[in-house]
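Task: sequence design from structure.
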């Protein structure tokens, strides 16, 4: 304690060798210690207030940024009805894959799942239970449909959507990535061009499908 007081007294210009001065230094030292402690406390409180203001301001700014930066939402989300299914030919034209009135529905969910069903409307009725049809009838039915489901990833720079198959009419498709180029003809009409076929191989003459956003059943 004496050395601390002596240091404080020396700082005040006192002679620490004199007992009277030492006593006076003790009083001054105590006051200096109290002043230092109070200054430290005030400084600490001010620092805490500044830190609190920084946190509050940062939280407000972060909340504002979160509101401005809404999460990306795929423009494909929703239900789409097939209106055209055509195959390009060597002359630069295209002809129907099945006929001029294909039926189909493709669905993209916000969670990243998709499902597609396409049918040739010319398929004849089989007239019996599905598990009792003949081999020829089953072949005709099978050749007139395309169905699968899975997940999808949208690439807005390349304008492609990749379907990863999880289940399909053909077990061979499971696990394959089917890439489609997309182009919006209008806000409610999109063209999907087949870039990789059902075997996952790239193709430059893949079918081109046009889909129109399906109206709600209550709006029909």
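Answer:
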């Amino acid at each position: 304690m004496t050395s601390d007081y002596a240091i404080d007294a020396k700082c005040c210009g006192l002679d620490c060798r004199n007992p009277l001065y030492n006593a006076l230094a003790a009083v001054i030292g105590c006051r200096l210690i109290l002043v230092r402690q109070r200054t430290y406390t005030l400084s600490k409180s001010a620092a805490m207030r500044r830190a609190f203001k920084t946190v509050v301001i940062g939280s407000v700014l972060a909340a504002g940024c979160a509101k401005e930066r809404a999460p990306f939402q795929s423009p494909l989300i929703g239900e789409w009805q097939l209106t055209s299914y055509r195959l390009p030919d060597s002359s630069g034209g295209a002809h129907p894959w099945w006929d001029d009135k294909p039926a189909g529905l493709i669905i993209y969910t916000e969670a990243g799942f998709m499902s597609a069903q396409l049918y040739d409307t010319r398929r004849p009725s089989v007239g019996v239970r599905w598990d009792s049809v003949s081999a020829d009838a089953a072949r005709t039915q099978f050749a007139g449909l395309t169905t699968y489901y899975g997940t999808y990833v949208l690439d807005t720079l390349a304008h492609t959507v990749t379907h990863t198959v999880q289940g399909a009419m053909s077990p061979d498709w499971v696990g394959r990535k089917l890439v489609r180029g997309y182009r919006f003809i209008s806000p409610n009409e999109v063209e999907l061009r087949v870039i990789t076929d059902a075997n996952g191989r790239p193709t430059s003459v893949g079918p081109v499908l046009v889909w129109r956003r399906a109206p709600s059943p209550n709006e029909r």
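The domain at 78-219 is CATH 2.40.128.280 (Lipocalin).
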